[in-house]
Amino acid sequence: MTITQHPSTRTLAVAAAGLTKTYGSGGTRVEALRGVDVGFEAGRFTAIMGPSGSGKSTLMHCLAGLDTATAGSIRVGGREITTLDDNELTRLRRDQIGFVFQSFNLVPTLTAEQNIVLPLQLAGRTPEAAWMGHVVDVLGLGDRLRHKPHELSGGQQQRVAVARALLTRPDVVFGDEPTGNLDSRTGAEVLSLLRRSCREMGQTIIMVTHDPVAATYADEVLLMSDGALVGALTDPTVESVAAALTGLGA
């Protein structure tokens, strides 16, 4: 198994230093993150992998401002977020961060187009027509905008979720098992679209996954174990990812 250490000097969309997260106290104390130092290069697709309980989901939730770190620094788009209050975090997640989750989280009574523009409308902003058209075109949703979620396939619903995440031009899009509820063919389609968003729109993607096949769509795979970053794989293959995970006891 060949693991290259994660570089630390790059143009970073998201960075963390000395990141610690603990739950409980005394005999029930759990150290979910143990002084993690990590940076995610702008315009790249990064997957985070590791055994169950390795801290990968906790890391993503802290980086995205969905959970509060116990100690350490987190910067999104160059802005320190650990000192923000609840209202500031809400604005950060609305304006600078996009989310694509395992469940599509679409509003069932709204059309695909209405779901896509909803975050901007909640922020009192008007979608930029040219950018909206580009995102819709790249994701192949032009003939589905008037459809409601129940009229769309699972893959089409996830495309709508991706479009919603991209429309605000966030500094980073976080994906939490974004293909977990999709069949392999549809999952491959969504992952290809995420990769295209990096290549064609310069988007930064950070994805947590347990699937070695999904990880091969990323430029790099970060490996976690026991709350710590333990290495990285560049240009991952199914074989290299599977070997790395086996070495970590996954």
Automatic annotation (TrEMBL):
InterPro entries the UniProt entry points to: AAA+_ATPase (IPR003593), ABC_transporter-like_ATP-bd (IPR003439), ABC_transporter-like_CS (IPR017871), ABC_transpr_LolD-like (IPR015854), MacB-like_ATP-bd (IPR017911), P-loop_NTPase (IPR027417)
Domain of life: Bacteria
One GO molecular-function entry: ATP binding
Domain ABC transporter: 14-250
Gene3D superfamilies from the UniProt entry: P-loop containing nucleotide triphosphate hydrolases
Keywords on record: ATP-binding, Nucleotide-binding, Transport
Pfam families from the UniProt entry: ABC_tran (PF00005)
Keyword Ribosomal protein belongs to the record: no
PANTHER family tied to this protein: ABC TRANSPORTER RELATED (PTHR24220:SF685), IMPORT ATP-BINDING PROTEIN (PTHR24220)
Name of this protein: ABC transporter ATP-binding protein
Source species of the chain: Arthrobacter halodurans
